Amino acid sequence: MPGRNFLFIPGPSNVPERIMNAMHVSQEDMRATDFPEFTLPLFEDLKKVFKTETGRVFVFPASGTGGWEAAISNTLSPGDKVLMSGFGHFSNLWIDMCQRHGLDVQALDVEWGKGVPAEQYAEILKADKNHEIKGVFATQNETATGVASDIKAVRKALDDANHPALLYVDGVSSIASMDFRMDEWGVDLAVSGSQKGFMLPTGLGIVAASQKALDKMSSAKLPRTFFSFEDMMKVNDNGFFPYTPPTTLLRGLRESLNMLFEEGLDNVFARHKRMGTAVRKAVEAWGLQLVAQGPEWYSDTVTAIYVPEGNDGNEMARHAYRHYNLSLSVSVGKIAGQAFRIGHLGDMNELMLLTPITGAEMAMKDMGYDIELGSGVAAAQEYLRSTKKQIKN
Ligand SMILES: *Cc1c(COP(=O)(O)O)cnc(C)c1O
């Protein structure tokens, strides 16, 4: 097919040319004497993205799922009680992982379209006088529903109950795109991956751990080998890895961090908010409903959109792929077919963003939806024009 594929799924996201070029390098000696000159600043700079000065960051050749496993296996023991909530595909998968690791999981079942139930967490933590709960889990951005949660509120629930449990946050589709403050919010384990906000190919599980989390390693009994923080720390301290690191991806990560810092993290977050708002303007103009059930839950990295009843949003997304070479994201789990998603994270600007809106309009019209061509595009265009940066000529 001539022309390019337009990729608007919430990960893998588009890899900018600068990063692709940075990865176009020969394989290198990971035990070379000057390798630490590359890796040590990389570890330090990663901490800036997580906003931690007191914690440390681990980079595994894995994906976000591996990051989840690293976070739990280094800090918990079989039978430990953990408080979790499920409100979409990813939050439910983390619950499943904890169950399969033999943890005693108290999982709150939350309506899809809402996020972490911080008030309910607060009640449960207050009632847990003997501090049996060892970990509290929160998915900051539920990618399946386009729902963002308030991590600060979860921290407050722990603090108000004076509860010592560790706070685990899945930030796979939010860290490096949406505000995240590990130290300020008292997050103990923060999980991310390379192929979303970091704008890299899949292949890195990136995990940050607080000092409090690291102190749990000696008593935590879940088995870990590949994901052992301890093994990593021993050699990471000198700039090396306990097994072969994916040096190509690390070179790409270096360039990703350069780009994030050049733009400035606050500007990156503001850009994502603007992109997310533009998509929501289009959805409103189409007369369709978001899966997210209110502004407090809006995600700035991915939008899930219900299609009119009686239609199959996934069939529409497949149609867009076949006919227009546009990758919208299908809906999964409980809402499979009822919705479709647009990923708008990472390397993204105004005109890129108009592409999935324009293509979705064409595909929805083709499928017989009552959509006026150009309506969503115009709403997004107006919003993007009226909020553009003032540049002096
Ligand atoms: C993508 C994603 C994951 C899983 O990450 P993989 O890299 O696919 O293993 C976990 N949580 C969230 C919120 C995600 O978006």
Automatic annotation (TrEMBL):
The highest taxon in the source lineage is: Bacteria
Which CDD domains is this protein grouped with? AGAT_like
Q: Which cofactor does it need?
A: pyridoxal 5'-phosphate
A Pfam family in this protein?
Aminotran_5
Binding of substrate: at which residues? R341
Top-level EC class, please?
Answer: transferase
Q: Does the keyword Transferase apply?
A: yes
EC number assigned by the record: 2.6.1.44, 2.6.1.45, 2.6.1.51
Q: Which residues carry this modification: N6-(pyridoxal phosphate)lysine?
A: K196
Keyword Transferase on this protein?
Answer: yes
- Keyword annotations from UniProtKB, A to Z: Aminotransferase, Pyridoxal phosphate, Transferase
Mind listing the GO biological process terms from this record?
glycine biosynthetic process, by transamination of glyoxylate
| Stretch forming the signal peptide | none
The GO terms this record gives for MF are: alanine-glyoxylate transaminase activity; L-serine-glyoxylate transaminase activity; L-serine-pyruvate transaminase activity
- Aminotransferase class V domain location is 44-286
PROSITE patterns with a match to the protein in the record: AA_TRANSFER_CLASS_5 (PS00595)
**Assigned protein family:** Belongs to the class-V pyridoxal-phosphate-dependent aminotransferase family.
For this entry, the protein name equals: Alanine-glyoxylate transaminase/serine-glyoxylate transaminase/serine-pyruvate transaminase
Which species is the source of this protein?
Methylohalomonas lacus
